[in-house]
Amino acid sequence: MFRRTNSEQETPTVPEKAGGKGRPTPSRKEAEAAARARAKVPRTRKEQMAAQRSARGETSQKMRQAMKTGDERYLPARDRGPVKRFIRDYVDSRFSFIELMVPLLILSMVLGYSGNRAMMNIGNTVLFTTLVVIVFDIVMLRFRLRRELARRFPGESTRGTTLYAAMRSLQMKFLRLPKAQVRIGEKLPETYR
Predict the structure, then answer these.
(1) CA-CA-CA-CA dihedral for 47, 49, 54, 56, to nearest 10
(2) 121-166: pLDDT as tens digits
(3) Which SS3 state, helix, strand or coil, does residue 81 take?
(4) Domain boundaries, the chain
(5) If you average pLDDT over residues 58-75, what whole number do you get?
(6) Residue 44 DSSP class
(7) What is the DSSP string of 95-136?
């Protein structure tokens, strides 16, 4: 009958599929061995504590990095979501008198401990004025923020947003976590979904 030559007897090569995984599928024996290695339970209490410590370290490292970059996946639950992101950006984009609070409080303490009656009165006046302005600033923040939230996120729950915004605004800008992603006076995007 027909005789095949050597070139015809060779098996044809299958071209590699674009987007393939680039490695052969592991055998069942290899896959089971890898699964056993992953599922290996620590035998002693010392090994368990070491495994928990390393897992906690990895998680906290991811959370610290997320606090710096604003990555939503690893943020704590209290900071997740588009509403909380908008609140952070809203508070960070406005200048508030609260950022001057610490220097003014130090000034009022220095004047209060000076021993001079006139200086003590000036220190008390500075302290009282600072507190009144801070309360006024937080009240104004609350009303403006509620109006913006109602406009941008209709139908969403605004429960806890005032406290979240007030606590963030009471911190000095360079100490806020998650770190500020916008500058003072920067225009915020319309959508946060």
Answers:
(1) 160
(2) 888 898 899 889 999 999 999 999 999 999 999 988 888 899 999 9
(3) coil
(4) 45-75, 77-175
(5) 83
(6) S
(7) --GGGGHHHHHHHHHHHHTSS-HHHHHHHHHHHHHHHHHHHH
Q: What are the angstrom distances between the C-alpha of 114 and each of 104, 110, 118, 121, 128?
A: 15, 6, 9, 11, 18
Total-model pTM: 0.67
Which residue, 172, 92, 96, is CA-closest to 135? 96
Q: Which residue has the tokens 């990095």?
A: 65
Amino acid at 138: I
Number of CB atoms found within 10 A of residue 26's CB: 11
Of 102, 101, 189, 99, give the one whose Cα is nearest residue 148. Answer: 189
What is the number of alpha carbons within 13 Å of residue 105 lying toward its C-beta?
10
CA distance 161 to 165: 6
The structure tokens listed for 94 are 């406005």
How many residues does this entry show for the chain? 193
